[in-house]
Amino acid sequence: MTVPANEVIAKTGDDALPTNPNPHSARVVLAHGGGGQLTNDLIREIIRPRLSNGILEAFDDSAVLEVEKGRVAFSTDTYVVQPIEFPGGDIGRLAVSGTVNDLVVCGARAKYLSIGLILEEGLDLDVLRRVIDSIAEAAREAEVTVVTGDTKVVARGQADGIYINSAGVGVIEPGVELGMERIEAGDCILLSGTIADHGMAVMLQREDGFGIESELQSDAAPLGGLIRAILERCGSDVVFMRDPTRGGLSGVVSDLAELSGLHLALDEPNIPIRPETRYAAEMLGLDPLDVANEGKVVVVIRPSEVEEALQVMREHPLGRKAEKIGEFGAKRDGLCELITEVGGRRIIQKPYGEELPRIC
Amino acid sequence: MTVPANEVIAKTGDDALPTNPNPHSARVVLAHGGGGQLTNDLIREIIRPRLSNGILEAFDDSAVLEVEKGRVAFSTDTYVVQPIEFPGGDIGRLAVSGTVNDLVVCGARAKYLSIGLILEEGLDLDVLRRVIDSIAEAAREAEVTVVTGDTKVVARGQADGIYINSAGVGVIEPGVELGMERIEAGDCILLSGTIADHGMAVMLQREDGFGIESELQSDAAPLGGLIRAILERCGSDVVFMRDPTRGGLSGVVSDLAELSGLHLALDEPNIPIRPETRYAAEMLGLDPLDVANEGKVVVVIRPSEVEEALQVMREHPLGRKAEKIGEFGAKRDGLCELITEVGGRRIIQKPYGEELPRIC
Fold it and tell me: What is the fold of B8-58+68-172?
């Protein structure tokens, strides 16, 4: 039997054109990152319809934004979380929440985001669709607009599914003055809710639960609404804010003590933590204070405004379990001390290295 | 012979503490990305001294910038070029130049950059030092300030040495109005210099030169100075600008024709190209029109200002070989046609996929 010439040509053609795949292929191919027609297709078919807005539509090299005279906050973060999807969120929700939170803890109103994608060849396009949907949903929640982006594709084994960088621009309202240098003895520390939920939820998901049955969910959420409510009610009595992400609560409180030069005393029984989170951390030999959060804020505030701030926070869905967890003393030793339920004391140190790799 | 107890302990200790290595280790370890003490060390010892400036020193979650009322340009790009270092530059120079160029082609004065690093475990810290030095040098050249950053570390085999995202903020001077919608029949296209140098230099370096001896160097450079000079001299007669990066000159000119809806005719003999670049491209079966540039700009300008603009460009070190390469006709077919030396004609199409993977 002879093979018709056109069949031979077709087969040769398929083999010879690894950079020319079916554009409706269900997986990411290297050619999606080439800056040519297939990159356009990916952007037009998957990314733009999900993030649609006037500025992104312009499709220029940069987004052009109108700003008022004043102070602008600018921040960046890269997300490499593994797995890409986990209980309570995914890398897309994380990329929006994390960068928005870096802006809002500086007292800014988050306005614009950029999204830079690194996709691994072979990534399921359905995963990409879900992640972009999730970016869109979190952006709506945070009232930010994705105005510019970039997509790169690397070969199998040169990434791990998808990495996302998001950079953000926010506007700081006149009158907002936050800074560690404003911290004084007597200032109090509030925490907006339970610790370690994000880190433990990702960790349990990754390692097949370590045999622990759990309802743990990541707390990944944009904090703009909660923080605006605090600033509106407590004004300049709010001294400083930070979100305890990588490095956990330990990282933030040890920084606060060290950089203010004051002694900071934390009451362990007041630090909110879910029993299941504590249990999971104990099973894995981790200190929940060291574990990442993605929807919590640490607020340093003048003592007169503590009750007011707690009330505002508890009225907001993201601050229901807010507590006062400690205060700054007059001693100038730059240390953060944890006082346990039975009156024991230990110095909190910044975690040394990587407690939980690729948690965010 | 019995082994002294302290030796056994020392050995056990070394093996048991993979996340607690010597902070002066010559390679990146996972713990460098944990957000703890070792992340601080990396930032304090390697990154901050090289990029030192008042805003970065503040070390908050966001940089706080003062802006005037007006238009701000915002752009992002991720760089995954392989190899990390190549003739004429490295991934650091590329990350600064590329994002600065995306801002300046929109008529902005580039002001602020963020740098987001993904480091692969095992990366030589000396390579990281050189890349950060290179970021600092290119930033000085471009007169931009790196104001905020982020560092993540992933395990071996989950990246390829180093990936960099840079996002940038620039200020658009009042009166600058650039846009594809302004393009009219009769407008001319200028190109600031030789094409395909970046892509071919990286490609030759990567593949051991394919046996081609070559002096080819990447053209990676920030274009702010050149573009400001053109805008100052030619004002509102400058209609539109774009840098021909991924997708090469073909990508830009096919976009210009398609999106303006006009016919664009290019004179092939006028398109500057080095003989060695042409030779290298021929050897690899590539069309130099499709190959990435990182220090060139395509300028659409009213015909009356062509001579003036060419003179300004040729007076600048980055525009010495500037040429008029084509013009828009009245026919509304949205096609870009290349007219060859011997009068042949072909339609230029946007490259389909990945001509040269990981070129930027």
Answer: 60s Ribosomal Protein L30; Chain: A; (3.30.1330)
